[in-house]
Specification:
By secondary structure, the protein is mainly α. The protein is about 75% helix and about 0% strand. Helix 3 runs antiparallel to helix 5, helix 3 packs antiparallel against helix 7 and helix 5 runs antiparallel to helix 6. It is elongated, with a radius of gyration of 35 Å. The N terminus is likely disordered. One of its GO terms (molecular function) is protein homodimerization activity. Pfam families: MENTAL. Belongs to the STARD3 family.
Amino acid sequence: MNPLPEDMENALTGSQSSHASLRDIHAINPTQLMARIESYEGREKKGISDVRRTFCLFVTFDLLFVTLLWIIELNVNGGIENTLEKEVVQYDYYSSYFDIFLLAVFRFKVLILAYAVCRLRHWWAIALTTAVTSAFLLAKVILSKLFSQGAFGYVLPIISFILAWIETWFLDFKVLPQEAEEENRLLIVQDASERAALIPGGLSDGQFYSPPESEAGSENEAEEKQDTEKPLLEL
Protein backbone atom coordinates (compact mmCIF):
# COMPACT_ATOMS: atom_id res chain seq x y z
CA MET A 1 0.00 0.00 0.00
CA ASN A 2 1.14 3.54 -0.69
CA PRO A 3 1.88 5.58 2.43
CA LEU A 4 -0.61 8.29 3.38
CA PRO A 5 0.28 11.84 2.34
CA GLU A 6 1.86 13.99 4.99
CA ASP A 7 -1.16 16.34 5.14
CA MET A 8 -3.52 13.42 5.88
CA GLU A 9 -1.17 12.05 8.51
CA ASN A 10 -0.91 15.45 10.19
CA ALA A 11 -4.68 15.85 10.13
CA LEU A 12 -5.21 12.39 11.64
CA THR A 13 -2.60 13.05 14.30
CA GLY A 14 -4.13 16.40 15.20
CA SER A 15 -7.65 14.95 15.41
CA GLN A 16 -6.47 12.05 17.55
CA SER A 17 -4.66 14.37 19.96
CA SER A 18 -7.69 16.69 20.22
CA HIS A 19 -10.01 13.74 20.90
CA ALA A 20 -7.59 12.44 23.49
CA SER A 21 -7.48 15.80 25.25
CA LEU A 22 -11.27 15.98 25.26
CA ARG A 23 -11.48 12.47 26.75
CA ASP A 24 -8.99 13.43 29.43
CA ILE A 25 -10.92 16.57 30.32
CA HIS A 26 -14.31 14.84 30.46
CA ALA A 27 -12.80 12.12 32.63
CA ILE A 28 -11.97 14.71 35.32
CA ASN A 29 -14.49 15.21 38.09
CA PRO A 30 -16.17 18.63 38.53
CA THR A 31 -13.89 19.58 41.43
CA GLN A 32 -10.80 19.17 39.27
CA LEU A 33 -12.47 21.06 36.44
CA MET A 34 -13.19 24.02 38.71
CA ALA A 35 -9.60 23.94 39.95
CA ARG A 36 -8.34 24.11 36.37
CA ILE A 37 -10.69 26.97 35.53
CA GLU A 38 -9.50 28.91 38.56
CA SER A 39 -5.88 28.36 37.53
CA TYR A 40 -6.56 29.68 34.01
CA GLU A 41 -8.50 32.64 35.40
CA GLY A 42 -5.60 33.36 37.74
CA ARG A 43 -3.30 33.57 34.71
CA GLU A 44 -5.69 35.99 33.04
CA LYS A 45 -5.80 38.18 36.15
CA LYS A 46 -2.01 38.49 36.05
CA GLY A 47 -2.55 40.51 32.89
CA ILE A 48 0.43 39.17 30.97
CA SER A 49 1.55 35.63 30.27
CA ASP A 50 4.96 34.26 31.17
CA VAL A 51 6.05 33.89 27.57
CA ARG A 52 4.97 37.46 26.76
CA ARG A 53 6.90 38.72 29.78
CA THR A 54 9.98 36.90 28.49
CA PHE A 55 9.53 38.59 25.12
CA CYS A 56 9.35 42.02 26.77
CA LEU A 57 12.51 41.25 28.72
CA PHE A 58 14.27 40.35 25.49
CA VAL A 59 13.14 43.63 23.90
CA THR A 60 14.60 45.47 26.91
CA PHE A 61 17.82 43.48 26.52
CA ASP A 62 17.94 44.58 22.87
CA LEU A 63 17.90 48.25 23.86
CA LEU A 64 20.41 47.86 26.69
CA PHE A 65 22.82 45.78 24.63
CA VAL A 66 22.87 48.22 21.69
CA THR A 67 23.25 51.12 24.12
CA LEU A 68 26.20 49.40 25.79
CA LEU A 69 27.91 48.81 22.46
CA TRP A 70 27.36 52.42 21.43
CA ILE A 71 28.83 53.74 24.70
CA ILE A 72 31.86 51.49 24.25
CA GLU A 73 32.26 52.85 20.71
CA LEU A 74 32.08 56.43 22.03
CA ASN A 75 34.72 55.72 24.63
CA VAL A 76 37.06 53.97 22.19
CA ASN A 77 37.02 56.75 19.58
CA GLY A 78 38.53 59.55 21.66
CA GLY A 79 36.39 59.84 24.80
CA ILE A 80 32.66 59.92 25.44
CA GLU A 81 32.19 63.70 25.56
CA ASN A 82 34.07 64.54 22.38
CA THR A 83 32.67 61.64 20.38
CA LEU A 84 29.13 62.22 21.68
CA GLU A 85 29.23 65.82 20.51
CA LYS A 86 30.58 64.74 17.15
CA GLU A 87 27.95 62.01 16.59
CA VAL A 88 24.91 63.75 18.11
CA VAL A 89 25.37 67.51 17.77
CA GLN A 90 27.31 67.27 14.49
CA TYR A 91 25.33 64.27 13.25
CA ASP A 92 26.48 62.75 9.97
CA TYR A 93 24.49 59.91 8.45
CA TYR A 94 27.55 58.44 6.77
CA SER A 95 29.77 58.16 9.87
CA SER A 96 27.60 58.34 13.01
CA TYR A 97 26.29 55.41 15.10
CA PHE A 98 23.72 57.57 16.87
CA ASP A 99 20.95 56.60 14.46
CA ILE A 100 21.49 52.89 15.22
CA PHE A 101 20.95 53.68 18.90
CA LEU A 102 17.77 55.61 18.01
CA LEU A 103 16.63 52.62 15.98
CA ALA A 104 16.92 50.42 19.10
CA VAL A 105 14.93 53.01 21.08
CA PHE A 106 12.27 52.97 18.34
CA ARG A 107 11.97 49.16 18.52
CA PHE A 108 11.75 49.25 22.31
CA LYS A 109 9.02 51.90 22.47
CA VAL A 110 6.83 50.37 19.76
CA LEU A 111 7.09 46.77 20.99
CA ILE A 112 6.62 47.55 24.68
CA LEU A 113 3.67 49.80 23.91
CA ALA A 114 2.08 47.21 21.61
CA TYR A 115 2.72 43.95 23.47
CA ALA A 116 3.12 44.99 27.12
CA VAL A 117 0.79 47.99 27.49
CA CYS A 118 -1.84 47.28 24.83
CA ARG A 119 -1.28 43.48 24.90
CA LEU A 120 -1.83 43.02 21.19
CA ARG A 121 -2.23 39.51 19.81
CA HIS A 122 -1.20 40.34 16.27
CA TRP A 123 2.11 40.50 14.45
CA TRP A 124 1.72 43.88 12.71
CA ALA A 125 3.75 45.84 15.29
CA ILE A 126 6.74 43.48 15.18
CA ALA A 127 6.49 43.42 11.38
CA LEU A 128 6.70 47.23 11.32
CA THR A 129 9.76 47.43 13.59
CA THR A 130 11.58 44.63 11.78
CA ALA A 131 10.87 46.09 8.33
CA VAL A 132 12.03 49.58 9.36
CA THR A 133 15.14 48.18 11.06
CA SER A 134 16.09 45.98 8.11
CA ALA A 135 15.55 48.70 5.50
CA PHE A 136 17.43 51.35 7.48
CA LEU A 137 20.40 49.12 8.28
CA LEU A 138 20.72 47.87 4.70
CA ALA A 139 20.67 51.45 3.38
CA LYS A 140 23.18 52.61 5.98
CA VAL A 141 25.57 49.74 5.28
CA ILE A 142 25.44 50.42 1.54
CA LEU A 143 25.69 54.23 1.66
CA SER A 144 27.73 55.01 4.79
CA LYS A 145 31.41 54.69 5.58
CA LEU A 146 31.08 52.62 8.75
CA PHE A 147 33.37 49.83 7.58
CA SER A 148 36.31 52.22 7.51
CA GLN A 149 35.89 53.04 11.22
CA GLY A 150 36.99 49.77 12.76
CA ALA A 151 35.23 46.78 14.24
CA PHE A 152 32.18 48.69 15.45
CA GLY A 153 31.31 49.48 11.85
CA TYR A 154 30.54 45.78 11.50
CA VAL A 155 29.33 44.90 15.00
CA LEU A 156 26.57 47.44 15.62
CA PRO A 157 24.63 46.99 12.33
CA ILE A 158 24.91 43.20 12.45
CA ILE A 159 23.85 42.95 16.11
CA SER A 160 20.87 45.26 15.57
CA PHE A 161 19.77 43.29 12.52
CA ILE A 162 20.02 39.92 14.30
CA LEU A 163 18.22 41.09 17.45
CA ALA A 164 15.32 42.51 15.43
CA TRP A 165 14.77 39.21 13.62
CA ILE A 166 15.10 37.15 16.82
CA GLU A 167 12.31 39.27 18.31
CA THR A 168 10.16 38.56 15.26
CA TRP A 169 10.78 34.82 15.46
CA PHE A 170 10.12 34.68 19.20
CA LEU A 171 6.79 36.51 18.97
CA ASP A 172 5.52 34.69 15.88
CA PHE A 173 6.55 31.15 16.85
CA LYS A 174 6.43 31.24 20.67
CA VAL A 175 4.31 34.01 22.17
CA LEU A 176 1.24 34.11 19.93
CA PRO A 177 0.84 30.31 19.38
CA GLN A 178 1.29 29.49 23.07
CA GLU A 179 -1.23 32.10 24.18
CA ALA A 180 -3.74 30.87 21.59
CA GLU A 181 -3.27 27.30 22.81
CA GLU A 182 -3.87 28.31 26.44
CA GLU A 183 -7.02 30.18 25.42
CA ASN A 184 -8.34 27.11 23.58
CA ARG A 185 -7.65 24.94 26.63
CA LEU A 186 -9.58 27.36 28.81
CA LEU A 187 -12.57 27.24 26.45
CA ILE A 188 -12.51 23.42 26.42
CA VAL A 189 -12.34 23.21 30.20
CA GLN A 190 -15.17 25.73 30.61
CA ASP A 191 -17.32 23.79 28.14
CA ALA A 192 -16.67 20.55 30.01
CA SER A 193 -17.52 22.16 33.35
CA GLU A 194 -20.79 23.53 31.97
CA ARG A 195 -21.78 20.08 30.74
CA ALA A 196 -20.89 18.52 34.08
CA ALA A 197 -22.98 21.14 35.89
CA LEU A 198 -26.08 20.07 33.92
CA ILE A 199 -25.91 16.61 35.54
CA PRO A 200 -27.36 16.82 39.10
CA GLY A 201 -24.98 15.52 41.72
CA GLY A 202 -22.36 14.70 39.13
CA LEU A 203 -21.60 11.22 37.87
CA SER A 204 -19.56 8.62 39.68
CA ASP A 205 -17.81 5.61 38.27
CA GLY A 206 -20.37 3.33 39.90
CA GLN A 207 -23.18 4.79 37.80
CA PHE A 208 -21.62 3.45 34.62
CA TYR A 209 -21.93 -0.34 34.56
CA SER A 210 -22.66 -3.05 32.08
CA PRO A 211 -25.70 -5.27 32.84
CA PRO A 212 -24.85 -8.90 33.62
CA GLU A 213 -25.15 -11.34 30.80
CA SER A 214 -28.47 -13.19 30.71
CA GLU A 215 -28.46 -16.89 31.39
CA ALA A 216 -31.05 -17.75 28.76
CA GLY A 217 -28.95 -20.57 27.42
CA SER A 218 -28.60 -22.27 30.80
CA GLU A 219 -32.37 -22.03 31.47
CA ASN A 220 -33.15 -23.67 28.13
CA GLU A 221 -30.78 -26.53 28.92
CA ALA A 222 -32.49 -27.09 32.32
CA GLU A 223 -35.92 -27.28 30.66
CA GLU A 224 -34.68 -29.78 28.11
CA LYS A 225 -33.30 -31.99 30.91
CA GLN A 226 -36.64 -31.91 32.74
CA ASP A 227 -38.48 -32.87 29.52
CA THR A 228 -36.20 -35.89 28.99
CA GLU A 229 -36.45 -37.04 32.63
CA LYS A 230 -40.28 -37.10 32.72
CA PRO A 231 -40.73 -40.08 30.29
CA LEU A 232 -38.13 -42.06 32.21
CA LEU A 233 -39.97 -41.56 35.49
CA GLU A 234 -43.27 -42.64 33.95
CA LEU A 235 -41.67 -45.92 32.82
